[in-house]
Amino acid sequence: MITGEDELCYTLVLSAEEVFKKKIVIDYSAEKYGRTCGHEEEIEESWQKALSSKARIFNATKYRLFLPILVQEHSVTIRIGLTDYREYLGTNRSDSLALLKEEGKTRFDDENAFLSNAIGCEALLLTSDNYLLLLRRSYSVATHTGLYNGPSGHAEPSRVNSQHEKELLRDSILLEITQETGLEANLLSEPQLIGIMLDSFSKPDFIFLVNCQADCTTITSAAKHAVESWESDHFLFLPLASALDAKDAASISLVIGDLSPSTILVPLTPVTQAALRCLRAHYNLINK
User: Which residue(s) pair with 11 in the sheet?
Assistant: First the structure.
């Protein structure tokens, strides 16, 4: 767990070291790995409250992470069920999260039993001129407004029939990048999974490294064509060297300006904090 007095929290449930050179196996079963039903009235109440304050949100089916992840000598098995965004806001983001976890542990020996644990995905998008793209989350999104993250979203079960592994480990994150940046998919490399994290609400995110053939100027220009431009209100480019030198924290220092340089603190979402930690570990592994 990385935490601090002025820091957000996260836990890595799959590290860069554990995933490095291992085969990723997706074990999908909506029946075996779904959420235990319960607390439906509270979930609906939370959903109606969210709808009244965030007009842009909508419900849709999501993948659910069943914990723990099984790490073997040569493979990593990730067990996947189904949930939806409404259940996520009504369980993981509920004021009763601690009570839900306690009840799950007492009744089923599983603190995640009643939780949605809807799987998100985030990319560290590396430009051709060695910068990482960070986007500031706008006031139209449901969570982490004003913080910076990489292109992110959710894998969508509705987009596939049976190719769940392809959606979870490739298609979803590439689509999020194209929709949030306006870039063409042919400019993007195959995504590389470098970790899986949980935030303080037990929400899991798959973290990917994606290389881009475009530079910062090209990406800035492409942004005007982004389908989901409303999700962010500012693009920031973080030098790769700065990311690799940084320490785990809720924000990262960035020097801006050439003639009169100044240092600003860039506040990060918990996923992005974890992503930068995984990135540093990944580079350490490939440079051994």
Answer: 198
